[in-house]
Automatic annotation (TrEMBL):
<dbReference type="GO" id="GO:0005886">
    <property type="term" value="C:plasma membrane"/>
</dbReference>
<feature type="domain" description="Sodium/calcium exchanger membrane region">
    <location>
        <begin position="33"/>
        <end position="188"/>
    </location>
</feature>
<keyword id="KW-0812">Transmembrane</keyword>
<dbReference type="GO" id="GO:0015385">
    <property type="term" value="F:sodium:proton antiporter activity"/>
</dbReference>
<feature type="transmembrane region" description="Helical">
    <location>
        <begin position="135"/>
        <end position="155"/>
    </location>
</feature>
<feature type="transmembrane region" description="Helical">
    <location>
        <begin position="285"/>
        <end position="309"/>
    </location>
</feature>
<feature type="transmembrane region" description="Helical">
    <location>
        <begin position="243"/>
        <end position="264"/>
    </location>
</feature>
<feature type="transmembrane region" description="Helical">
    <location>
        <begin position="101"/>
        <end position="123"/>
    </location>
</feature>
<dbReference type="GO" id="GO:0015386">
    <property type="term" value="F:potassium:proton antiporter activity"/>
</dbReference>
<feature type="transmembrane region" description="Helical">
    <location>
        <begin position="207"/>
        <end position="231"/>
    </location>
</feature>
<protein>
    <submittedName>
        <fullName>Ionic transporter y4hA</fullName>
    </submittedName>
</protein>
<dbReference type="Pfam" id="PF01699">
    <property type="entry name" value="Na_Ca_ex"/>
</dbReference>
<dbReference type="InterPro" id="IPR052946">
    <property type="entry name" value="Alkaline_pH_Ca-Antiporter"/>
</dbReference>
<feature type="transmembrane region" description="Helical">
    <location>
        <begin position="66"/>
        <end position="89"/>
    </location>
</feature>
<feature type="domain" description="Sodium/calcium exchanger membrane region">
    <location>
        <begin position="218"/>
        <end position="360"/>
    </location>
</feature>
<keyword id="KW-1133">Transmembrane helix</keyword>
<feature type="transmembrane region" description="Helical">
    <location>
        <begin position="35"/>
        <end position="54"/>
    </location>
</feature>
Amino acid sequence: MIRKLLFSVTAWCIALPVVACIVLAAVWGRPLGWTLMGFVIAALIAAVVVAVHHAEVIALRVGEPFGTLVLALAVTVIEVSLIVSLMLSGGETASALARDTVFATVMIVCNGVVGLCLLMGALRHRVLAFRVEGTNPALSVLATLTILTLVLPAFTSTTPGPTLSTAQLAFVGVVSLTLYGVFIFVQTVRHRSYFLPVNVKTEGAQMVPPTVAVTMTSLGLLLVCLVAVVGLAKVLAPSIESAVVAASAPHAVVGIAIALMVLLPETLAAVRTAMLNRMQISFNLALGSALATIGLTIPVVAATSILLGLKLDLGLPPKEMVMLLLTLMISAMTLSGGRSTVLQGAVHLVLFFVFLFLAIVP
């Protein structure tokens, strides 16, 4: 059945990346009016959705937990492209963009995505089971990276404000990349069984993997989609910031908009997996995405900041620190038992809506 599904969507999977590239070529170097902006946004969203679809096709071929890793890396490449594009075009006003986007990603994943997965899955299956030996290590790495990159810079004294010196920034980038690499080694090699579904006989577990030809085609189209996303993000960057300024919204809303847009396809995949009672795969998708965002985004933006001499604010304000620490504490409680119900999902979703409300009404 899955093989028929893959071949039935081949036409639009090929057409949409081509259309996105055509839109990119048409608007490159031109000022965007409302009509052109609509086309660019539609093409960007289409390219993101198709990119994640092709990553999912590749995931079916390579198996778990490699499949969720492919999805997380694809989403992170897209997110890094958007952040770097806005950093380069925003000047001084973009100094906090990477921090806001990474923070927004962690809050959206740990509260919005996890909460929605727990709620939807528990409504159908009442009690959801997952592997503590897989979720707890992921959360421990996530907590370490978020505190080191988003909280500690606000308390260092070498440089004023929520910034790090060049040496500190390079060190944090290396530490983030190293710790993320160790986690990937544990997830895919050393203790791979910790990240497999608890019940492999649930619906959808016996999906037929695509052929090598289909997988290689998806790999090529995935690269085309990522090129289109990078270019369209570069074109759209000035318009996003102008819209935020015109609406008199806090600048942090830009980071939230980026994270919400990029994480939408992965959110849908995680919720669909949770409703199939494969909660461990949902956690692999969600937590893996948050880990990849910090473990890969921070080193990239740190290198960009050092090489180009751009100011980079990393330390969170006090209100955001409180929300982050509360999220990590609640996540630790949720992931420590190996079983969850609708109550945990409701708690995480409440935190998610509090985060959105306070971002707009600080």
